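Final report, results section. Input specification for complex C-07:
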Amino acid sequence: MKLQPTIGLEIHVELKTRSKMFCGCPAEHFAKPANSQTCPVCLGLPGALPVPNRLAIDWAIMIGLALDCQVNLKSTFDRKHYFYPDLAKGFQITQYDDPFSFKGQLKLESGKVIRITRVHLEEDTGKLLHKTIDGHKLTLVDFNRSGVPLVEIVTEPDISSGEEAKEFLKKLRDILRSLGVSDCDMEKGSMRLEPNISWSLSADKLADYKVEIKNLNSFRFAQAGIDYELKRQKALLDKGEMPVQETRGYQPATKATFSQRVKETAADYRYFPEPDIPPIVLTKAYVENLRKQLPQLPEIVVQELVKDFHLSLSTAQLLVKDPLKLAYFIQYNRQIDAQTLANLIVNKKIDLSHPPQLKTTTETVDPKIIDQVLKENKDVVVKYKAGKTSVMGFLVGQVMRQTRGQVDPKLASQELLKRLQGPALKS
Amino acid sequence: MDVTELTLKSAQTGLEQNRFTSVELTQSYLERIKKYNPKYHAFVTVNPQALVEAKAADQLRAKGKKLPLLGIPLAPKDNFLYSKMRSTAASKLLDNYIPQYDSTVVSKLKAAGAVVIGKTNLDFWGHGSSGEHTDYGIPHNPYAFDRVTGGSSSGSGTAVAADLCLMGTGSDTGGSNRQPGSYCNVVGVKPTYGRVSRYGVIAMASSTDSMGPLTKTVEDAAKFLSVMAGHDLLDATTVKLPVPHYHLNLETERKFTLGLIAEYFEGLDKKYLKVIEAAVKKLEDRGHQVKRLSIPAVKYAYPMYCLTVFAEIASNLSRFDGIRYGYDRDAFGEETKRRIMIGTHSASSGYADKYYNQAMAGRKMLTYQFKQALETVDAFIGPVFPFPPFKIGERETDPLKMYLSDVLTVPANLTGNPAVSVPIEFVNGLPNGLQIICKHFDEQTMFQIAHQVEEDYQMYKLRPKLV
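Structure output:
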């Protein structure tokens, strides 16, 4: 019987919605003065009640769809109880029995499939700040982050190496960025990783222990941490010792993991359905409409670039990874030879803030095209008017497509803005 | 002026005809509060700004402003947040807690021109059905000083019965408005779950808390509810149904089919049975039909309530973690600690399947059986309490006996149906109410039937002799 490396990932991603998950406070919390973005709801004050953010729910479902998941037409929020000073209510609102989506997959370059267990939505916690003030060691709580929408993506233990984990994470990040739902900035903590690592007989026959690594703030560290951990555990197993079930930290300087916390008993979170939020019931049509809004997934775009423009696989991948570069390529590839343009872009020999100096773009946008784009995308227009300004990029993209990239996107954006803020659209 | 004869309706007429001002009215109640509250403990806190609020109401009236409750002195239960006063929920854990915001109900009452005269006493956090579990003095029954008032909206029941204010609000989680309604000879309403916003009311059990009025008459309750009710963007469980002017539609020629559920009468004290049957007879005399039914799941309602509601109690109180609010969890009373322990156990892994999940399944069954039965009748009619108001302290040593108080009121909380207690004939010289339970969001029928019962008995004309 041969043991194999068995790695599952839990990834937390903060959504970049304008407001928090259950209240109207701003969700963007990075570097804001402590406790400046709080209200009775996210402070968990007596009497306050959560009201779910519909956009966050839509985005969580879109993430599930992009990862090939099945969507639950009836989902519930649940309470997860534990004590921690940064947890305002003494419980976290999350999803337990019926997450928004489940049973998905993401394919690696090798063709290997990593199964996605579930994608669910929850609220972030506050943050503890350990400080010394007037000689006193104090722990302060900042609740700005409390209630920020957080999507948790859980994989099956299908990953076999640090390198595979890194590839999976990069692909996932590219998808999330292309959806426009999260910055996935590891340094700001808007994407957090927790690998679970063991040596097992197979993904279906797990070992009696697993080790979780926390505080990995880059993909590189994740890869190194996982590889170190696999080696450490293997050495113990080879000696006939069973690794301890524990949570370990990662030390970049030594590229080693270290023991943080040994879990002796399983925590009892006393999950039960959140009574303050009725179950979320969706129609199939609603889900299909969300599916329609999915941008093409990066992988498919890569395939198209290779097929349609005869780019090399690596060039296509480099283009797709950076939404700005890709947009630039799509915009101008009809003016210059596509392969030349792609090479100029990936080799950074071109300034993306200006059109390539070979042929000028048109100075005006045909109003008919603007009309058509707005008409064909009424649902997007409604979203924009409801305050989701991030959909502008999508509309600009549509104009660019219609004009075959012949207009300056800035101009297209200005024209769209004029129309959107102007008198109501005729239907 | 003498306020003891006043109802909301007659007070409004008096104000409109300039027979008295809101300041005079409020002043009269304040004087009675000063005289009687030290003995009766109806209020946790009296509003020092009550006369200022009354004056503002008088000024609005002078300007010709018309508002549904303009200048009416009323009292929210002390778990309804009002940012101008402390909100203790009758627990010393929140002794000095001044909320940052108004509950939706209080802000609606304020917008309707009401004067908040004070905040009424309760079983702390809502934990009780006698009024005895409070850190601010046990309320005494205005009709029998040595007896309990019913709870948990004990202070509102006492204050309305003793004419210390015109109306009070209450939160009914397992019977908390109907019970003091029954024991204090006032009308206590539990609206449909989702009819009135829970936002800003310190939660007891989120899935059953229902905010409603305690008043002298059915008409007062109907008008009060039409002000309190409605969809609230801040409470996801409120529904977007229009709110009728219940009080304008109390008279009806309709003949109702009234259901008597066998399980509500099992083992009921004979004296109680007689009084309830007499009330039913009067309704029959009016041409309504009576149908006898059985709803088997009612027998198990109390254990279902205990296991689900207590789990929510434990959950909702976990925010009082000893870090904020100034007091440690030691400040919780015995009854609260008991409920936290039972609720924690009920939902713990390894036990949840036996207790919480089982109870939730039972609750679904009960709701289904209620719905089925209410397709054949317009309302259920029955008792509120299985026994009369007992002497203060008599049952304190036996929590199980105490929990029996809730047996007849918890089913409507578990199913979400609207219910009311309307005063009928006294038993052993002590107040008693008739319970009427209707279909979801059919408060109108409930008030119509209650109104007829009230016409038959006119118990609101009886005034207690206060000591």
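The mean pLDDT of chain A is 90. Chain A touches chain B at residues 40, 44-52, 79, 81, 83, 85, 88-91, 266, 268-272, 275-278 (CB under 8 Å). This concludes the modelling results for the funded period.
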